[in-house]
Amino acid sequence: MKYAINGDIKIAKTFEYDVVIVGSGIAGLYTALNIDQNLSCFVLAKDRMDISNSWLAQGGIAAALHKDDCPENHLKDTITAGAGLCNAEAVNILVNEAPNDIKNLVSLNVPFDLDEHGELHFTREGGHSKHRVVHAGGDATGRETIDALSNIAFQRENISYCGQTCLFDIIIEEDQVSGIVVRYDDSEFHFIKAKYVVIATGGIGQLFRSSTNPVIATGDGIAAAKRAGAKLANLEFIQFHPTGLWDDTHKSCDFLISEAVRGEGGILVNNAGERFMPQVHELAELAPRDIVARGILSELKRSGESHVFIDITSKSEDFLKARFPTIFKECLSRGINISRDRIPVCPVQHYLMGGIETDFYGRTSISGLYACGEAAHTGVHGANRLASNSILECLVFGRRGAMSINSEESEAKTQKCEMKKGECETESEERKTQKSECCQVTTSLGVAANPEFSALPSRSRNEEFDLAAMRAEIQNLMSDYCGVVRSKQGLAFALDEVKAICVKLESVYENCVEYLETLNIATVASAVLESALNRNESAGSHFIE
């Protein structure tokens, strides 16, 4: 199946840019800021900019900047957390280029928290041997970083932005990206023609019943890339954060209690107030996330309870309000004063280590198609992500992707100038005038004008199709059989069920975003289950009973 759209859709408007970036989280914004300012760039958000995994990121960004640390230590910790399955060259790039990207964020006015000497404040999180995690706003690193980057990005003349825009398909012509089809405001289809498409759409949390991801995290970029023929890798490695906030009223664990709480001295205890992680791993509460998650589940199985607790009552209320203002406020809204009360927690789906396979410059197996951030598989995380390496990956490989695009365009421009001297400067000036808001572009292109579109098969619409029920069924299957602990039998059963749902979805076409999201969830779930079945041994976050 190459496309989700069918031959009956009408393209209401068209745009043309040099680069289109799908996703306005840190990966998308940082990539845009590193694109040559002579290239027109269009950044799309599925919803608002404050609805993304990046915005919700609490902990911080890891980088070996402290005088007692070095990139070699960071590399060792990353590979250890990844169960030895990281790409060592990719990790080497990550840890050695990290300090300069943090310094660049400082120059871009990201308000990192400082210590009493006015220097960057470093904390320690699970799997780290050193204090190397910088943070902003206490526990609001993602929000503060996006605020700073977006303020600068959207003052750039070459960067345009549009929200409420959902990616449907990546259009391929002659094995080369030619653009994307999007649905704007769930009302009309637009075709965005671009030589380069960057997928920065984030995670796949909505494949599961409970996730720290927002509701828009339906794997759109990964699913569209798969339909277009791009290679995917390591989808079986899905991280379940050990400490989602448990609440019997909310019936979900969707709010994250940052690993930094344990890094600042929080301990895990059972209902009787007893620590259990020292018996599980030598690093106790600061062991890699997959180990802590399984340790908690083992304790819950033994006790028959539904949750354990983080105890950070050793710290004062003033300290906790300053260091963890978001967590303090959210817990207090649920009747928990974390300076006096233990915090109920349990594991919850959090992060995808696999994704669209890329090289060290964000290039995928399709010419012109790039990926960065959580939607990409760069190889740095292996079987389990080291805490606070996620935003770092967005920065390092988003920038490197932009470098590749800039280099390709520079070479192309040089060749063109040699062929037609004097025309390059004119074209550059024309590019500068391309910036326009989504609603201001009135050019239209009928589907019949594009052979790729007109070749799509029509699929009948079924009024009795229950998309919500299909989505819930997939979430139940993934949560029950593809969670923290798995079995071959359970994975095989879930795959058969999900494939049957995929067949149903591909036999019809519903002209709405709800249909697309359900199709994407089914598409990615099937790919995840296949990857999990293909890996026989337990490794990191892929743990087979």
Structure characteristics:
seven-stranded mixed sheet, four-stranded antiparallel sheet, globular, single chain, 2 domains, alpha/beta, Flavocytochrome C3, Chain A, domain 1, FAD/NAD(P)-binding domain, about 550 residues, 17 strands
- Architecture of the largest domain, CATH level 2? 3-Layer(bba) Sandwich
The rough form would be described as globular
Rg calc: 23 Å
Domains, number: 2
- Biggest sheet statistics: 7 strands, mixed
Helical proportion, percent range: 25-40%
In CATH, what is the class of the largest domain?
A: Alpha Beta
Strand percentage lies at 15-25%
Number of helices: 16
Whole-number average pLDDT? Answer: 90
Q: Distance between termini?
A: 34 Å
Query: What is the CATH superfamily classification of the largest domain?
Result: FAD/NAD(P)-binding domain
CATH topology of the largest domain: FAD/NAD(P)-binding domain
Tally of strands? 17
Structural class call reads alpha/beta
Low-confidence stretches: 426-449
